[in-house]
Structure formats: structure tokens, C-alpha cells
Write a structure and sequence with these properties.
Blueprint (H helix, E strand, L loop, with lengths): L8 H15 L15 E8 L6 H20 L7 E8 L4 H13 L3 E5 L4 H14 L3 E2 L16 E2 L5 H14 L5 E6 L2 H16 L6 E5 L6 H10 L4 E5 L3 H13 L5 E3 L6 H7 L7 E4 L10 H13 L7 H20 L5 H9 L4 E2 L4 E2 L13 E5 L5 E2 L1
Parallel strand pairs: 1-2, 1-3, 3-4, 4-5, 6-7, 6-8, 8-9, 9-10
Antiparallel strand pairs: 10-13, 11-12, 13-14
Helix pairs in contact: 1-4, 2-10, 2-11, 3-4, 5-6, 7-8, 11-12
């Protein structure tokens, strides 16, 4: 009999946090009350610098312009929204230190849009134990979708759902020999596991796989390994610098092999850095096109983005930050003037089929994301997305 491996230390911490949250789910949330007529402070640890700094900056700016617009109109129920953001440079110890500071801050009402699968996996046990609302974490990982916990609210589709969409597309067009390069961390493993499950579902051959470290140092070796296996297509489960290093190396090894990636790969900075090597990459998106102003929420986002004067390019990630902030504001409004964490949590779960103008969210049950939106796009010759 094959022995069952003991859970890792991080997994044990997560299980302990889940147990604590399940045992007393409403001990903490009702204790924190926002002062009427004042402000609501929400706190965010994200990557503003470091290997994924362009992703974090885009989402942060999208949220900022939404909150600024709300505050300019008097806030929600007489309260303005204060977004306190700390840079963690996509470094787990820094992110954990940031969140510990937020949890100790008596004025911090909720955590908002914290970034990164490894960081969220590390911080989640302490957050669950505290009972502080954990709103719209920036990850598609299943570890951020604990069941039976009412204080964690996911919006974006999961990595497993994105991987399923990509593999289903490949199966539909008759591609069977699929490779995958994935980041050697919790984020990459989630994408690998989702892709493998989807291949099994569609009765395709096993994945040809190679890992890439966070610094991209072994990207060339990973590309050479996959190229030698002669895949018909390659899934790219990478983000930031590893994406650049791997795609460039793969284009040298086998330029004609189609590349498919998840939403976190498609930042404007990454596409600019790839140049012509980005052309033809298919990318799953969990938000509408930020240039499609036929969609009302996109039109509102574009107007707010231009009015803010921010120099970053309006992107899917910036739109995601904006939409996350919009949903947060709707929950605050529904929670009423007598705002507590408990009333906020209840208000979020009562958001059913919330229509933001071409983008719908519905909070159904713990462990499920509120949006199922996924569409496949392709990078054109000008570096822009083709739907």
C-alpha cells in the first residue's frame, strides 16, 4: 500500500484556520463596526514592484479610480472608502507581514484584492481565524475557495476553469499532444492540476510538462525539454518574467507551436516586452475586453480611467480591479448605515445575479466564485487582443 503523505506545514496551517472558521464563523465579524459618517478602511497587500509588479499596479489602479469616483459623490451610506495598500513585491514573507499588520489594525474593516497564490495560501489561515472579510483575492487557485467559510469572497473564475476552457478548445480542434510549462509554485501547480484533470475528462493523452522557477532561470531548459517532446500545442502556466523567458526560448526552439495561456499572463507590460513573440498566443480572459465600450461597465471604466489621468494602459487587469471595487461598493450599500462586518458578510451573500452592465456576479455558496465569465482571445500583430 502506498503511504499517504502528511500535509505540508502550509497545508496544516490552512486546515487549522478552516477548522477555526467553521467552528465559530461569526465570533469576530460582528465586533468590528464602521463609524457612521466616517470612512471604511480596507487593506490590500499586492505586488507594486518585483516580477509581477505590472499586474499588481494595474489592478490597484483600477480599484483606486472606482473608489475615488464613489468618494467624490459622497461615498456609500455617508462613508468614504479608504484603500490602504502595501507593496509586497510578490514576496510571501512580505505579504504575510503586511497582512499581520492589517489584522492588528483595529480600523481595518476588510482585506481587499490581495495578490498571489503563494501569498494568499500563507496568509489565509490567520485571516480565517480573525474573521475579517477577505474580498476578491487575486488568484484563481482552489486554496482561496474554502468551503463552509462565509468570510471569503471570490469573483474571478478559477484557474481550473480557465485550464478547462483551454483544453476543451484544443480537444475541439483535434489537438491531442499537449505540453505545459508551469511556474514552480502553488500558482503554477494549480494550473497544472486543472489542465491534467481536463485532459482526463476529454480522454486525451497525459501532459508533457516542465516547471519554471520564479526568476525564469531555467526557462530555456524547460523550453528545450518540451520542444524535444514534439507537442502540438503548449499551455503556458506562467506569469511575469518567467513568461517572457519561456516564450522567447520556445519561439527559438519551435516557433510554429501554438501557445495557450491563462489570464494572468496577458498584462500589457508582458505583451510589450514580448514584442513579435507574443503574436498568435491564445489567452483565456476572465473579464470582458477593456476596449469593448459597447459593454456598459467597460464604457464606465474607460471614462473613469481617462479622467483619472493614470499613465498605465487600460487592461483586462485594470478592469478587474475596477469591477472588484464596484462589487465591494454594492455590498457596502446593501449592508446599510449600521455597518458591521457581520452585516457586510450577509450583504455579500445576498448579491444574486448582480448586473453591473454586461458583467454579472452572483454569490451562491462558499467555495464558488461569483463570476463564471471566460472568453478566449488571441494576441494580434499590433500586440492587442483579438476576440
Amino acid at each position: 500500500m502506498t503511504p499517504i503523505a502528511s500535509p505540508s506545514p502550509s497545508r496544516r496551517r490552512l486546515l487549522a484556520g478552516l477548522a477555526a472558521a467553521s467552528a465559530a464563523p461569526f465570533v469576530w465579524p460582528g465586533r468590528a463596526r464602521a463609524q457612521a459618517g466616517g470612512s471604511v478602511r480596507i487593506c490590500q497587500s499586492t505586488a507594486l514592484t518585483g516580477p509581477l509588479g505590472d499586474l499588481g499596479q494595474a489592478m490597484h489602479q483600477g480599484a483606486k479610480i472606482c473608489f475615488a469616483g464613489v468618494n467624490a459623490k459622497g461615498g456609500i451610506n455617508g462613508r468614504t472608502i479608504e484603500l490602504l495598500t502595501r507593496d509586497d513585491a510578490y514576496d510571501v514573507p512580505k505579504a504575510l507581514a503586511n497582512v499581520q499588520g492589517f489584522l492588528a489594525d483595529k480600523d481595518c474593516f476588510a482585506l481587499f484584492n490581495c495578490m498571489g497564490t503563494p501569498a494568499i495560501g500563507a496568509m489565509l489561515p490567520k485571516v480565517l481565524e480573525s474573521g475579517m472579510p477577505f474580498f476578491a483575492p487575486f488568484t484563481g487557485a482552489l486554496l482561496a475557495r474554502p468551503k463552509n467559510v462565509r468570510t471569503v469572497f471570490n469573483i474571478r473564475a478559477s484557474y481550473a476553469e480557465e485550464a478547462e476552457q483551454l483544453v476543451q478548445h484544443l480537444a475541439t480542434i483535434g489537438i491531442k499532444r499537449i505540453g505545459i510549462a508551469y511556474q514552480n509554485n502553488a500558482f503554477g501547480k494549480e494550473i497544472f492540476d486543472g489542465a491534467r484533470a481536463s485532459l482526463e475528462k476529454h480522454k486525451l493523452a497525459g501532459l508533457l510538462s516542465a516547471t519554471v522557477e520564479n526568476d525564469g532561470s531555467d526557462a530555456q531548459a524547460a523550453a528545450a525539454k518540451l520542444a524535444a517532446a514534439n507537442p502540438e500545442a503548449v499551455l503556458v502556466g506562467l506569469a511575469g518574467k518567467p513568461t517572457l523567458d519561456f516564450v522567447k526560448a520556445m519561439r527559438v526552439q519551435r516557433r510554429g507551436v501554438p501557445l495557450y495561456a491563462t489570464s494572468v499572463m496577458g498584462s500589457a507590460a508582458t505583451l510589450r516586452a514580448l514584442g513579435d513573440d507574443a503574436t498568435g498566443i491564445a489567452i483565456s480572459q476572465v473579464m470582458p475586453s477593456p476596449g469593448n465600450t459597447v459593454v456598459p461597465v467597460v464604457r464606465e471604466f474607460q471614462q473613469a480611467w481617462k479622467a483619472s489621468g493614470v499613465e498605465l494602459e487600460a487592461s483586462h487587469l485594470a478592469l478587474e480591479g475596477y469591477i472588484n471595487a464596484r462589487v465591494f461598493c454594492e455590498a457596502l450599500r446593501a449592508a446599510g448605515r449600521n455597518l458591521t462586518r457581520s452585516s457586510f458578510v450577509d450583504a455579500v451573500w445576498n448579491l444574486k445575479r448582480l448586473e453591473l452592465g454586461g458583467f454579472e456576479v452572483s454569490f451562491s455558496e462558499p467555495g464558488r466564485n461569483a463570476s463564471r465569465f471566460i472568453e478566449l482571445t488571441m494576441v494580434g500583430r499590433d500586440g492587442r487582443f483579438i476576440r
